[in-house]
Design goal:
mainly alpha, 2 domains, 3-stranded antiparallel sheet, 14 helices, 3% strand
Length: 372
C-alpha cells in the first residue's frame, strides 16, 4: 500500500498548494476592504492547515479499532453539538442559518458530524453484516442512527451537507449488502420526503426556480451562478492569469469560499479546473483501493465512507459552481476557505492512511460479498 499512500498524500499536498495560491488570489480584495489586510483569510487558513496536519498525523497513527470502540460516544457528542447549534443564544446565526458554535474558537459542528456519521454507520453495519439482507439490521436501524446526525444539519438549514451525508449513507448500505428492494424503496422515500420539505422552504424554491431560469433572476438568486459562469467563459483554456480575475473584484461575492472553483477557472482556465478534477479523481481511486484492501468490514466501510465524503463533496461543489445543480452552500475540500472544514478533511485523510497501514492482501473483489 506504500504506493497508494504516497499517491494519496501527493494529491492532497497538490490540492492544498493550489488552494493556498488561489485563496490568496480570490480573497485579497475582500480581505483588504473588510480587514485592511490582504492576507487576512490566508493567515487564518494557515492556522487551520497546521492544526489539520497535526490531526491527520495523530489519526494516521491510531488503530482504526479505537474509532470503532468510541463510535457510539462520538455520535452522541456530535449530536449534542448539532443540537447546541440550533439553540438560540448558543448557536451563531449567519444569513438565516445556524451552523456555527463559538467554543473559544468558531467551529462548525456539521463538519465534525461528517466523520461521526461515517464512523457510526460503519460500526453498526460491520457488527450486523450477516443480517444485512434483513430490513431493520441492514437498512432501518443504521439509517436511524446516521439520520439522528443528518436531520439536525437539515434543520440548520444546510441542504448541501444533508444531501452529501445522505448519499454517503446509502452508498455504505449498498456496499454492506443491503437487499436492493429495501435499499431502493427506502432511498426513494427519503428523497421524496426531502423534496417535500424543500418545497416548503421559500428560499430554496426560489433558488431552484432561478436555477431553471437564471437570466430572469440575474440580479437576485442567480447572481452568483451567472457570474461564476462568466468567470469560466472569460478564463477559456489558459485563463486570464493568476491574480487577474475581474469577477472576484467586482461581481462574485465571497469568491474565496463556495465559488472559488470559478476563480480557478477564470485565472487558470480549463487547465486549472481539469487539474483539480484529476486530483480529486486520484484521491477517489486511492481511497477505493484502500477500502478494497482493508483488514476487515469496519475498516472497509469506514474507508469507503470517508472517501465518498471528500470526493462527493467536491463533485457537488463543482456541480453547483458550473450550474449543473441548484445553488447550495458547500465548500470545495482543501481549497475553499474554512477552518473546521480543513481540519476535518485532513483528519479524514489521516484516517484513510491508518486504514491503509492495516491493509491486507489480496484485495476484496466485491464490496457486497466481503465478510459475508
Amino acid at each position: 500500500m506504500l504506493r497508494t499512500k504516497t499517491v494519496l498524500i501527493l494529491s492532497v499536498v497538490a490540492l492544498l498548494a493550489l488552494g493556498f495560491v488561489m485563496l490568496s488570489s480570490a480573497s485579497s480584495t475582500q480581505a483588504l476592504a473588510a480587514y485592511n489586510d490582504a492576507h487576512y483569510f490566508l493567515k487564518r487558513q494557515a492556522v487551520a492547515l497546521i492544526i489539520g496536519i497535526i490531526c491527520a498525523l495523530i489519526a494516521s497513527r491510531i488503530n482504526p479499532e479505537v474509532w470503532k470502540r468510541v463510535a457510539l460516544v462520538g455520535g452522541v457528542i456530535s449530536f449534542i453539538l448539532l443540537i447546541a447549534v440550533l439553540t438560540p443564544g448558543v448557536g451563531i446565526a449567519v444569513k438565516g442559518s445556524r451552523r456555527w458554535l463559538h467554543l473559544g474558537i468558531r467551529m462548525q459542528p456539521s463538519e465534525v458530524a461528517k466523520i461521526a456519521t461515517v464512523v457510526l454507520g460503519a460500526w453498526w453495519l460491520s457488527r450486523n453484516q450477516r443480517r444485512a439482507s434483513e430490513y431493520w439490521p441492514g437498512v432501518g436501524v443504521p439509517l436511524i442512527l446516521m439520520g439522528m446526525l443528518i436531520f439536525p444539519i437539515f434543520v440548520e438549514p444546510d441542504f448541501g451537507t444533508t444531501i452529501l451525508l445522505g448519499a454517503v449513507a446509502f452508498v455504505m448500505l449498498w456496499a454492506n449488502g443491503a437487499r436492493f428492494s429495501h435499499w431502493f424503496l427506502t432511498g426513494a422515500a427519503s428523497v421524496s420526503g426531502m423534496v417535500v420539505m424543500i418545497m416548503q422552504n421559500p428560499v430554496r424554491m426560489r433558488r431552484i426556480i432561478a436555477f431553471r431560469n437564471p437570466e430572469m433572476y440575474a440580479d437576485t438568486e442567480a447572481y452568483q451562478l451567472l457570474n461564476a459562469l462568466y468567470a469560466f467563459i472569460a478564463g477559456g483554456w489558459r485563463g486570464v492569469g493568476l491574480g487577474e480575475s475581474l469577477q472576484k473584484r467586482y461581481y462574485l461575492p465571497e469568491a474565496h469560499t463556495d465559488f472559488i472553483f470559478a476563480i480557478i477557472g477564470e485565472e487558470l482556465g480549463m487547465i486549472g479546473t481539469l487539474s483539480v478534477l484529476t486530483l480529486f479523481g486520484v484521491i477517489f481511486f486511492c481511497g477505493l483501493r484502500i477500502a478494497l484492501r482493508a483488514a476487515d468490514s469496519f475498516n472497509r466501510l469506514l474507508a469507503l465512507g470517508l472517501t465518498c465524503v471528500i470526493t462527493l463533496q467536491a463533485a457537488i461543489n463543482i456541480a453547483v459552481v458550473t450550474g449543473a445543480v441548484p445553488t447550495k452552500g458547500i465548500a470545495l475540500p482543501f481549497i475553499s476557505f474554512g477552518g473546521t472544514s480543513m481540519v476535518v478533511t485532513l483528519t479524514m485523510i489521516g484516517l484513510l492512511l491508518a486504514i491503509a497501514n492495516q491493509a491486507t492482501e489480496p484485495p476484496v473483489q466485491n464490496f457486497r460479498k466481503s465478510g459475508r
